[in-house]
Design goal:
Layout lengths: L8 H9 L3 H20 L6 H14 L10 H19 L21 H5 L3 H11 L3 H11 L5 H8 L3 H22 L4 H8 L1 H15 L5
Length: about 210
């Protein structure tokens, strides 16, 4: 029996801080795919490095953890700061970015897009990649991580009503991007007709694509 399997996330993080390799491995295995996926569509070429930096920053800053926000909010809050640091260094304003149009490596090389076999998923991932950064984060945390709006608000340092508004705006934009990228017909009708269902269906696919290889 592995005691780490029954430990809470924060207990594992504290044990990791104290030098436990088993705790480090257990916590990384639990959250690696989610954290890597967070970076995958945004800064594809830096996803691996930023994932490692996020875990290390979480360990180093464990005293700042607040139970009321939840562990996921703590971890993704750190991931967001890591992302913004990179974007600012690259001279891109977080609200103006459109990653599919940037001069960097194409989002088509992301593990999530490469793993997508259905055309609907491919189109939807490309549409999501065009969202402004904060809208993309809100969408992914809501549909892929199943995080409540209160926890997402903690990640983005915003209030719940702002998160609700951003989710609504993100749905509008993704729907428009899908229409812009597709011809009238089956693919467009399927995505626009059940956009939320298709977005949720990407959760398991993108998690599997970004899982750590043993």
């Amino acid at each position: 029996m592995n005691p780490a399997a029954d430990a809470t996330d924060i207990d594992l993080l504290r044990a990791w801080r104290s030098g436990s390799a088993a705790a480090a491995n257990a916590l990384t295995q639990r959250h690696y795919a989610s954290v890597r996926r967070f970076f995958d569509l945004k800064v594809t070429h830096l996803a691996e490095d930023l994932t490692q930096q996020t875990f290390l920053a979480a360990v180093e800053g464990v005293e700042r953890y607040r139970a009321e926000a939840g562990f996921k909010a703590y971890l993704f809050g750190i991931a967001r700061l890591q992302l913004l640091r990179v974007l600012r260094k690259q001279g891109r304003h977080e609200h103006a970015m459109r990653f599919a149009q940037s001069g960097g490596p194409s989002v088509a090389t992301s593990l999530s897009v490469v793993a997508a076999r259905r055309e609907e998923h491919q189109v939807l991932l490309m549409a999501l990649s065009q969202l402004p950064t904060d809208l993309q984060i809100v969408t992914e945390l809501y549909y892929w991580e199943s995080m409540p709006t209160a926890e997402i608000a903690a990640v983005l340092e915003a209030n719940v009503s702002t998160i609700t508004s951003r989710l609504h705006r993100a749905r509008q934009l993704v729907s428009q991007y899908v229409v812009d990228m597709t011809r009238p017909g089956r693919i467009r009708d399927a995505l626009v007709g059940d956009l939320e269902g298709w977005q949720r269906s990407l959760g398991p696919l993108t998690a599997s694509a970004n899982a750590r290889q043993r």
